[in-house]
User: What shape does this take?
Amino acid sequence: TTREAVETLDKYDNLYATITVHHLMITLDDVAGGMLRPHLFCKPIAKRPHDRDALLKIALAAHPKVMFGSDSAPHPKHKKESCGCGAGVFTAPIALQLLCEIFEQHNALDNLQAFVSDNAQRIYGICPEYKEVVLVKRDFTVPEMYGEVVPMRAGEILKWSIERVD
Assistant: This one.
């Protein structure tokens, strides 16, 4: 989650990276810059803006040694909003929509599939059964809760929706 880690990536042939959607979006100030926001607390902890920007740059470029890692953590609300809260951000239901927003904002939608799917398949030498996820530019309101879990961006409106999964 650091700029230094990104800079190290090309120095070793056998070094690869996964990046979570939340590490592309947040910094330490978002987590603890004023009031603590436990639903953004994760490990490794989000770092400084220049670190997030380095992650963004390499992800948006669809660097061949970088792939999406969901690392979604569905801790119940009472476990996140307590002393000693669990580390992790719950993004699973909205990860693809968030990634669409990020890649669109940076004019890099053409690189999204490589980051989310193609790079990992090539790196791991796998050819999973073909599935297609179709996202459309349509507002989607993130639920306040999924069961007992508060998702990232709860109650906010995203610009992308999942239309279907084939």
Observations:
- The chain has one domain: 3-128.
- The first helix runs from residue 3 to 8.
